[in-house]
């Protein structure tokens, strides 16, 4: 067996505490998994024995499951009852599933083929396909949030692109050239998802008391709003009980739209009222419409002045199962100043105005953290 450090690595550039620029080698998880390791390399060990993570394979042993409310887009356009359901779901755990979204199955299967095609390439082909990118922008094929050599790593490989505004990646080859239709497939999906997000933003405004349809949507502009597309690949993991696919976090976004392609499980949400992690029940039935999962990020928590809290979530891994997910992060244009709505401040938390780009920069400076740290930046 090769030594771990002979297995291909990403190189993460960072500036250390003394202001020195350094390069950290980060193993490519897919390459580790391909070699059929029967142990978990130390940098990936998150928990100590006796304190294992409840993984999807433990479903049958009674791990708590959280049924996520399903919002029907057709009903949402016509029935007040669906709006109340959206309001309840949004307050309860900051995420919900969306059905009857109208995104054609060919668009979604196009994303699936493109994503699986990319991860089906050899490492050299993947690297050549993506080319160079700016790691400070958190885009490209590689790792983000790696800030030190002793940091615990997630069992994941990822690829992140700025999908909107349209010219955002001009001059940077971050869109894979191979599979050749990768960009087209993702961009088609992004445009469909954007429409759903705009409708949801409007509905969320309408669900407030008093209703204010435009209160969130007004910050978004088709030509300038940002959508980052992140493709997550979780290879089979030798010790799902000790590793994490994505460690606990909130997203920086206003809205995040997630899809997964198989019934592969993995996503978990933390419910503050019960102080517990729950497996997210997110069914994918053969031949059925693929449900979108929408979750709130920090920008939504700020805009809504704590009314719609960003969800604290994570993804676990599995022993013999690989999983793909695609996350779209939808944000107002970077220069936009968002102003929290007036709110009753039930829990005494209030936010102040922030510029979107300032918040996102702060979020990446602060993360990864084990607590909801970054959002304190926006507290009144
Ligand atoms: O893979 C998932 O289900 C979650 C991904 C996620 O939380 C993220 O990309 O921010
Ligand atoms: Fe996330």
UniProtKB/TrEMBL annotation:
Keywords: Iron, Metal-binding, Oxidoreductase. GO terms for molecular function: 2-oxoglutarate-dependent dioxygenase activity; metal ion binding. Residues 225-332 form the Fe2OG dioxygenase domain. GO terms for biological process: coumarin biosynthetic process; response to molecule of fungal origin. InterPro entries: DIOX_N, IPNS-like_FE2OG_OXY, IPNS-like_sf, Oxoglu/Fe-dep_dioxygenase_dom, Plant_2OG-oxidoreductases. Belongs to the iron/ascorbate-dependent oxidoreductase family. This is OLC1v1002888C1. It comes from Oldenlandia corymbosa var. corymbosa.
């Amino acid at each position: 067996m090769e030594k771990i450090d002979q297995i291909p690595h990403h190189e993460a550039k960072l500036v250390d505490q003394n202001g020195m620029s350094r390069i950290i080698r980060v193993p490519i998880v897919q390459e580790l998994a391909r070699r059929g390791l029967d142990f978990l390399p130390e940098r990936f060990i998150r928990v100590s024995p006796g304190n294992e993570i409840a993984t999807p394979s433990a479903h049958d042993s009674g791990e708590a499951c959280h049924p996520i409310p399903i919002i029907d887009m057709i009903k949402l356009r016509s029935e007040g009852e669906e709006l109340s359901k959206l309001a309840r779901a949004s307050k309860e755990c900051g995420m919900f599933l969306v059905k009857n979204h109208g995104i054609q199955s060919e668009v979604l299967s196009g994303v699936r083929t493109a994503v699986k095609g990319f991860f089906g390439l050899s490492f050299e082909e993947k690297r050549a396909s993506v080319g160079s990118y700016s790691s400070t922008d958190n885009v490209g094929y590689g790792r983000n949030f790696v800030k030190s050599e002793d940091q615990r790593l997630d069992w994941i490989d990822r690829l992140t692109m700025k999908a909107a505004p349209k010219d955002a990646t001009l001059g940077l080859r971050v869109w894979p050239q191979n599979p050749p239709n990768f960009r087209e497939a993702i961009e088609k999906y992004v445009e469909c998802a954007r429409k759903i997000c705009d409708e949801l933003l409007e509905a969320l405004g309408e669900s407030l008391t008093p209703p204010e349809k435009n209160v969130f949507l007004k910050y978004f502009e088709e030509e300038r709003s940002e959508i980052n597309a992140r493709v997550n690949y979780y290879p089979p993991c030798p010790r799902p009980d000790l590793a994490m696919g994505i460690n606990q976090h909130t997203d920086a976004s206003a809205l995040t739209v997630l899809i997964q392609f198989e019934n592969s499980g993995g996503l978990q949400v933390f419910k503050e009222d019960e102080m517990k992690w729950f497996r997210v029940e997110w069914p994918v039935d053969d031949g059925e419409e693929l449900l979108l999962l929408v979750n709130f990020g920090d920008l939504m928590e700020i805009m809504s002045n704590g009314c719609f809290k960003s969800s604290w979530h994570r993804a676990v891994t599995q022993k013999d199962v690989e999983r793909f997910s695609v996350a779209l992060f939808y944000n107002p244009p970077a220069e936009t100043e968002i102003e929290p709505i007036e709110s009753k401040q039930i829990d005494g938390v209030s936010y102040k105005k922030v510029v979107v780009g300032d918040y996102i920069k702060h979020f990446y400076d602060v993360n990864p953290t084990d607590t909801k740290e970054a959002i304190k930046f926006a507290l009144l």
